[in-house]
Amino acid sequence: MPKITLLLIVSLLAAVAGAQAQKVQLIDKQATRETKALYQNLWRLSGKHTLFGHQHATEYGHGWAGEAGRSDVKSVTGSHPAVIGVDFSGFSGSSPEAMERAKEAVRQNVVDTYNRGGITTVAWHFNNPVSEGGFYWKDSVSLPAVKYIIPGGEAHAQYKVILNGIGEWAHSIKGEDGALVPVIFRPYHEFDGDWFWWGKAHTSREDFIQLWRFTVTYLRDSLQVHNFIYAFSPDNRFNSEAEFLERYPGDDWVDMVGMDNYADVGRDQYDIETATRKLKIVSDYAVKKKKLAAFTETGLESIPNKTWWTKTLLPILKAEGMRLAYVLVWRNDIWSPTHYYAPYPGHGSVPDFMEFYHDPFSLFEKDLGAIYKRKKFLGVF
């Protein structure tokens, strides 16, 4: 064999070995082919890009609801967001008929997104299962539900029924190719604040970790849900890796780490340096542990700063060493004239958003390609 050919083969094999060494792994060893492919492709893309996401983008927007194929982002740019946020909020706490309607509506949304080639992330504004008060903590009525629903708690069986409903739903979301649709599941978010019943003031560290581990284990191992990617996302109330990990359930129970941060990007202050530093803690941990990282929620309500997209958000995402799968801004309310986080046609930030859209760093749905298929090189995935 000619020396040049042998050297080329050795180099190629070394490249393959290096790529395999960098490969990230899901906590679910039985994850579906499409879920594994999504995870690997998000890791690959996050090396040079960040995907743009918007909560409830295709369900409703500024002044409209329920129009097939529509989103405010698409109306502005011609493309849906790469990541669409939905919610399990309607999956419990109401009549069986209402819950079934909610599950079907979310199922159809998730399947439509998959069939287009987009990605879904699921939040869970979980109505308190043992008291009134909804998902927020209300001093007059709310009970600290975590201790009731973990194993050994008096409402544990009730919690399993709720999870059974989520598991059944997870087995129902099939694309037009017949495959189960992968979703990024982000339960119990912003747990370091006190506004939700699962927040820091209302449960111990040990009970929160037990709740998280049980939830993942029951869905994955007992209910055989193999199309979930599990995301852990506190609010921005940390200043070090140790503080970020204070209620972390462990690497065996988390696929993605994230942060929600509205305060440092314009809601309370413009502090790009602080927002970047905190997000870099998240990104660095993910890289170290070979997990995905994301800016799981952010945004500026009403977007009064017309250059917020390129002068505030983009510099954070592009910071040196930052590696993020996606950034997601919050929803555009149907009725409110002020509660929206993405531009709509005619909004003053549209020119700047278009600059953000055209930047090669940001990816939208039309940019994704075969996100649910793994890339093959020399016969090796």
TrEMBL record:
GO terms for molecular function: mannan endo-1,4-beta-mannosidase activity. Keywords: Carbohydrate metabolism, Glycosidase, Hydrolase, Secreted, Signal. Substrate binds at H125, W195, Y262. It catalyses: Random hydrolysis of (1->4)-beta-D-mannosidic linkages in mannans, galactomannans and glucomannans. It holds the Pfam family Glyco_hydro_26. Its main location: secreted. It comes from the Bacteria. Transmembrane segments: none annotated. It is found in: Secreted. The active site is at E190 (proton donor), E297 (nucleophile). GO terms for biological process: substituted mannan metabolic process. One of its GO terms (cellular component) is extracellular region. Residues 33-366 form the GH26 domain. Its EC number is 3.2.1.78. The record marks H189 as: Plays an important role in maintaining the position of the catalytic nucleophile. Residues 1-21 form the signal peptide. PANTHER family: GH26 DOMAIN-CONTAINING PROTEIN-RELATED, MANNAN ENDO-1,4-BETA-MANNOSIDASE E-RELATED. Belongs to the glycosyl hydrolase 26 family. This is Mannan endo-1,4-beta-mannosidase. It comes from Pontibacter qinzhouensis. The lineage of its organism: Bacteria, Pseudomonadati, Bacteroidota, Cytophagia, Cytophagales.
